[in-house]
Structure formats: C-alpha cells, structure tokens
Amino acid sequence: MIRHVRVLPVLLLTPLLLTACGSEKAGAGGAPGSPSAATPAAAAPDTGAGELRVRAQAMGVAPELVYVTEAPGFTLAQQSVGVLGDDGFSATWVDGGTNALLRLAVDRGTITAGTCPEQPVGDMSGEHTTCERDGKAWYRTGAGRHEYALPEEGHVVRVSAETDAVPRDVLRAAALAAHRPDAAETDRLLPSAEPAPATPVERGDLPPFGDGAPDNHVDVGG
C-alpha cells in the first residue's frame, strides 16, 4: 500500500523555521532573566593578601601587624625581618652611605598622653622618655634615640633611629610612609613560606669515573 505524504507549502514552512531559529538564538544569547544568560566574571581573588597571610604566619607574625616603609637612601636589611614579642613585626632599613639604621616595629597595644612617658624609646627600659604630640603621631626621645609612634586600631607603629644618625624630618617622613605592603612589597619584605631546597653536598673523594664509589686507596706503608 502506498502512503501519501502531506507536504506543507513553502509559504507556511518558512515562518515556522524562522520562529525556531529565533527561539534558539534567544536561549544561546542569554535573554535577560533567562537561566542561560551570560553572567559577569567573578572578581579575581586577592592573592597578595593570601600570600602575606601565609608568609607572616610561617614566621609567627600576625598578618595585620606587617608594615613596610621607605626613606631616601635606605634599603631593607633582609636579615633583620622578624617577629617582635608574641606576634608583632620588626624590620630595619640601612643607609648605604652612612650606615644609619631606621627600625620599624609594630606591636599590639596603644599609646596615649598618659602612657607615652612610661613607654621607653627603642626598648631601652629605665631611661627617661619625653613625648611631644605631632599630628596624629607622638614624637618621642630618650636614651640617645628618637621615635615616631603612630597609634592604629589595636596596635602601634613605631619608627626609631639614633638621634645623631637620622634627622627628625627623615624619621617623621619614614613614619608617615609606613603602610601595609602590597603583593610586590610582600615578596621583597617577607621570606617565602616554602622551605629552601636542599643543596647537595659535594665530596672531594669521589672519582670522576666508575660508579662514583669513594676512593679509599691507601699509599704504600699504610
């Protein structure tokens, strides 16, 4: 038996095809409010903050207490970077021409008009301390050193030096320049949390040939 196939007229078929194509494009292109609509890319995570946290904690330093500063002619003494007290932070910058030192120290606590004279400058206990308000900071002197102390939220940032080695204006500028490090500064300031690769030890008694066994040859006479 022969079945007859019903063929739709071209004029009727064309609108159906256009409707189907239009629906497919709307779904792919992402009509507003549709599940397939393109969404904006999520913001990249702050890898700098994460690296700071990892490196600081590896040293035993609270990440929020890590600061960095700068002063003309001074460079960071990498070996000076370390923990202060329980989880504070300290680092020293050196003037390459005069060998003068700028010490940055950050620790928990506060400083007020009442407590300022009681806190020694540069950890020199038992010395008389004078305090002078300078903007939001305290300018302090004692035991041949001077210091700018800036109270922050729950901690104090201090920049100190020998009075005769670093002028007050340089000290003040370095204190006001103290800030939380960015990713690049963190990389230069804090040592990596990854352990350094072990360096193979070269032995002088290994011959350059054979299986590399030690040369235990004994001369005549033992």
List the topology elements.
Blueprint lengths: L9 H20 L17 H13 L14 E3 L5 E3 L3 E8 L5 E8 L21 E5 L2 E6 L2 E7 L3 E8 L5 H9 L6 H7 L33
Helix pairs in contact: 2-4
> Biggest sheet, open or closed, and with what strands and sense?
8 strands, antiparallel
Q: Which structural class should the secondary elements be placed in?
A: alpha+beta
The proportion of strand residues reads: 15-25%
Average pLDDT level? 80
Q: Tell me the distance between the termini.
A: 114 Å
Quaternary status = single chain
Number of helices: 4
- SSE arrangement, N to C: HHEEEEEEEEHH
Q: What overall form do the CA principal axes indicate?
A: elongated
* Helix content range: 10-25%
The low-confidence parts are 1-45
Radius of gyration: 34 Å
Beta strands, count: 8
List keywords for this structure.
alpha+beta, 22% helix, elongated, 8-stranded antiparallel β-sheet, 4 helices, 222 residues
What does this structure look like?
By secondary structure, this protein is of the alpha+beta class. The protein contains four helices and eight strands. Strands 1, 2, 3, 4, 5, 6, 7 and 8 form an eight-stranded antiparallel sheet that branches. The longest helix has 20 residues. The N terminus is likely disordered.
